[in-house]
Amino acid sequence: MDQAPDIPSRPRRAAEGRVWWRRYARSVTGMAGLATLAGFLVCAIGPGWVTSREPTRMTFRPFSPPGVAHPMGTDDLGRDVLSGVVHGSRASLRIGFLATGITVAIGVSIGALSGFYGGRVDEVLSGLTEWVLVIPRFFLALLLVAIWGASTGNIIIAIGVLSWPLTARLTRAEFLSLKEREFVTAARATGVTDGSLMVAHMLPNALPPIVVNASLEVGNAILLEAAMSFLGLGDPSTTSWGSMLLNAQGFFRRAWWMSVFPGSAVLLVVLSLNLIGDSLNQSLNVRLWNR
């Protein structure tokens, strides 16, 4: 009689999760990145917890340097820079995470189908992946947003649909390796459908590199959005770090703080995501556990 494949129970998965967290917590840089990202997430979720001022309020003295009243100074219109940085985290992080969600959904779907079925399906999907990969993503994103309109939703879609090839290639490589494993053969013998086999059995085993790559894609999406806003293609109704940098470019010598603080916010978030991704790679890679 055929035996069902060995599927980890919930207690076993919980134990593995605790082991993974202990390994991740050993990384000083990983914890520093996580703490930094958590701080910006707090700003994004509840900006009123950090500052009571509105980023569009123009009642303060223009070009006030950083001080007690305004820790990050004011801009050319008398708006508080700290308020702009805090509220800008919501737009930038929302675009980063939602665009990455689209990227992962498309990339995992295409990569899983390509690696699982192989043959003609693999040739077509791999060709599509390579074609999208060679397209200049930034310039095409600019073109799409210019055509569709500079709104937050359009920016998210443009970034998401142009950033999936690397995720697809990683997923394809994992599925090509996993489909030859014994637990997949055992699952096939029990009559498991292709969809269930890919989603319930193979995808959980392919997640580590996908999760690591996703953490890096969030940072890439934030950088791309900041660059688009800096070129004037950001959502004009939303305060973001990129739009603050656009406004500050003409006043760097007179008011350096207008560009330094939002630019530092972009740097810190992207750096924290890279530190998290590196630590995730080390904690999820079982081949490094005994080193």
Please write out the topology:
Layout: H1 10-25, H2 28-45, H3 81-117, H4 119-133, H5 137-148, H6 152-162, H7 165-178, H8 182-189, H9 194-230, H10 241-248, H11 257-284
Structural class: mainly alpha
Q: Which segments are poorly predicted (pLDDT under 50) over 5 or more consecutive residues?
A: 1-7
Total discrete domains: 1
| CATH architecture descriptor text | Orthogonal Bundle
CATH superfamily: MetI-like
What is the helix fraction of residues, given as a range?
A: over 70%
Major pleated sheet: none
Calculate the mean pLDDT score and round it.
87
Order of helices and strands: HHHHHHHHHHH
Q: Count the strands? A: 0
Shape: elongated
Proportion of beta-strand residues: under 5%
In the CATH scheme, the class would be: Mainly Alpha
**CATH fold naming:** MetI-like fold
Q: What's the Cα radius of gyration? A: 23 Å
How many H/I helical runs? Answer: 11
Distance between the termini: 41 Å
